[in-house]
């Protein structure tokens, strides 16, 4: 089937080119053109202001021509164009572009065209849109992200609450997906798709299915793993282990993929590229679920070709709702108690024995923390890309004698081992990942809830180390008693759910902890969670690669 060449950036569609079965389809060259040239959309994000103005004028003229203003009853616009206009009208930070797209949609509706309506008022089901507008960065940051990405999606909108982190995240993602590397561009997007499917993350599946097709990928691959290249199919086992139980990865798994006699052999450089892509996708799925991100307006589930019902408007309050039996004063007490504990830990001089440190680690690792209720069955769009769907994270607390050995950070760490190996096999990627880890761990505004001039280092370190603890990684020089002191049970439940079972995250789990904290502070928790999870999975795989190489 011949494919219409699609442009990068703004003309991409996540949900607009879908059939009733929700599988994105490329456009055939033989189909009649019912909308403007896709280049008009991509040129809207040009850094040249004159070119943007010209593209906007051409888009306007093309749409008006299709609406047949001089020929009553002849108005025709294709679904893809309508969804592109909807997305631009909702999220473009350039006011003249955003307002023109909205005006074109209104004109189309007046001409009798059924136009799409966004089903959500903002990017997140957990964070009110007004909060993101009020706490978000300056307009220059938003415009730069738009011009760099070619679109301004919900992930970027929420991450923009922390602009310093956003900039290094976008650099890393751009290098993974777009810059020179051992894997073809279509494969990169497909690997992200198959990894996101492990966590039922329809958001990333749709977004990168579109990217896969735009990069020239075979449409049939989206029907299931059995239709892909044999090398891609061989990643299935490694993908599910990375997503759910990375501690089980051994040098044997690496050998089966890269040894000279293996079928569909991977080079080590290709494999490291694929591993970083998979861990990026798994951890980003945690962020999507942990922040309650809505589908994009042009995604399946993000729009309807009719006025949305009141239930779809999802009205939201301006603060995190407290549990039904919560009182405002309870939240104040919660903050004061946490601050007092942080100060006490910083002043504490007592040292524990190594045996006691290990005991406290094991206590945290084996603590039974329930996760949220299981969601309904995922869509066919996701299920067709998953094999062995019953394979999920297995709680350390129920393993008993089968509990795998702990990985001591002193024996294999990112700083001393993983960084150099990634940089050797995938040049510059180690540095990009290191920058991201450093930024998220050092990110602070010296405030906590309603308090300013607060040193949050001990809290950030407790969160990072607790996430690694859930993945069986222990730091000999860290007292895990601090985790139990600083992280209350509601926060532990949120962290464990998002890190280990992200598809089970609910608004109630999000709202049940830190009730008086800013939403931006909860997004910071999600960023720490995402990066700690990514590093943990990488460490187990890189250790296996090192053992294979030696």
Summarize the structure in short.
One of its GO terms (cellular component) is nucleus. The chain has 550 residues and is mainly alpha-helical.
Report the end-to-end length measured between terminal Cα atoms.
47 Å
What composes the largest sheet? 2 strands, antiparallel
Shape: globular
Q: With helices defined by DSSP (H or I, 4 residues minimum), what is the helix count?
A: 24
Strand content: under 5%
The spatial strand order of the largest sheet comes to 1-2
Residue windows where pLDDT falls under 50 for at least 5 positions: 1-34, 308-326
3D structure, described in words:
This protein has 550 residues and is mainly alpha-helical. The chain has one domain (125-303, 328-549). Helix content is 53%, strand content 2%. The chain is built from 24 helices and six strands. It has helices spanning 38-43, 49-66, 79-91, 95-110, 129-135, 139-149, 154-159, 163-177, 185-197, 202-214, 230-233, 236-244, 251-258, 268-290, 328-347, 354-366, 380-383, 414-425, 429-442, 457-470, 481-486, 489-500, 507-511, 519-549, and strands at residues 117-118, 303-304, 407-408, 447-448, 451-452, 473-474. The strands form three sheets. It has a two-stranded antiparallel ribbon with strand order 1-2. It has a two-stranded parallel sheet with strand order 3-6. Strands 4-5 form a two-stranded antiparallel sheet. Strand 4 and strand 5 form a beta hairpin. The longest helix has 31 residues, at 519-549. The two termini are 47 Å apart. The model is unreliable at 1-34 and 308-326 (pLDDT under 50).
């Amino acid at each position: 089937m011949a494919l219409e060449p699609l442009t990068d950036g703004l003309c991409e569609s996540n949900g607009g080119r879908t059939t009733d079965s929700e599988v994105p389809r490329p456009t055939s060259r033989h189909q009649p053109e019912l909308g403007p040239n896709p280049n008009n959309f991509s040129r809207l994000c040009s850094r040249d202001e004159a070119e943007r103005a010209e593209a906007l004028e051409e888009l306007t003229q093309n749409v008006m021509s299709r609406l047949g203003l001089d020929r009553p009853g002849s108005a025709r616009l294709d679904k893809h164009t309508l969804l592109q206009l909807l997305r631009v009208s909702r999220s473009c930070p350039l006011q003249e572009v955003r307002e023109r797209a909205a005006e074109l949609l209104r004109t189309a509706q007046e001409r009798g065209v059924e136009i799409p309506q966004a089903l959500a008022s903002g990017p997140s089901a957990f964070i009110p849109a007004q909060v993101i507008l009020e706490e978000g960065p300056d307009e220059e940051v938003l415009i730069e992200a738009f011009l760099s990405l070619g679109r301004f999606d919900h992930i970027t909108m929420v991450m923009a609450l922390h602009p310093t982190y956003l900039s290094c995240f976008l650099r890393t993602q751009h290098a993974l997906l777009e810059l020179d590397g051992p894997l073809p561009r279509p494969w990169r997007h497909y690997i992200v798709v198959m990894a996101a499917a492990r966590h039922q993350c329809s958001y990333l599946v749709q977004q990168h299915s579109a990217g896969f097709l735009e990069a020239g990928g075979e449409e049939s691959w989206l029907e299931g793993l059995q239709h892909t290249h044999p090398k891609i199919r061989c990643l299935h086992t490694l993908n599910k282990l990375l997503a759910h139980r990375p501690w089980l990865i051994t040098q044997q798994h690496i050998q089966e993929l890269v040894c000279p006699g293996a079928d569909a052999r991977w080079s080590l450089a290709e494999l490291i590229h694929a591993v970083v892509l998979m861990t990026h996708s798994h951890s980003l799925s945690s962020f999507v679920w942990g922040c309650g991100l809505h589908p994009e307006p042009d995604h399946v589930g993000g729009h309807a070709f009719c006025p949305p019902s009141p239930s779809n408007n999802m009205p939201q309050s301006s603060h995190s709702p407290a549990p039904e039996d919560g009182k405002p004063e309870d939240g104040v007490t919660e903050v004061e108690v946490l601050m007092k504990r942080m100060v006490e830990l910083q002043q504490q001089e007592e040292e524990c024995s190594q045996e006691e440190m290990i005991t406290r680690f094991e206590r945290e690792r084996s603590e039974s923390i329930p996760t949220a209720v299981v969601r309904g069955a995922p869509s066919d769009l996701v299920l067709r890309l998953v094999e062995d769907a019953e394979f999920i994270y297995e709680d350390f607390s129920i393993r008993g004698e089968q509990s795998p050995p702990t990985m001591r950070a002193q024996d294999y760490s990112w700083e001393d081992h993983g960084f150099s190996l990634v940089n050797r096999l995938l040049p510059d990627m180690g540095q990009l990942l290191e920058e991201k880890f450093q930024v998220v761990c050092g990110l602070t505004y010296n405030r906590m809830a309603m308090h300013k001039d607060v040193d949050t280092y001990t809290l950030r370190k407790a969160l990072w180390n607790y996430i690694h603890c859930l993945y069986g990684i222990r730091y000999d020089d860290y007292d895990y008693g601090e985790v139990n002191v600083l992280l209350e049970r509601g926060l532990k439940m949120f962290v464990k759910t998002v890190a280990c079972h992200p598809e089970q995250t609910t608004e109630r789990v999000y709202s049940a902890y830190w009730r008086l904290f800013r939403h931006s502070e909860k997004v910071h928790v999600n960023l720490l969670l995402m990066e700690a999870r990514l590093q943990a999975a990488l460490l187990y795989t890189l250790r296996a690669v090192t053992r294979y190489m030696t």
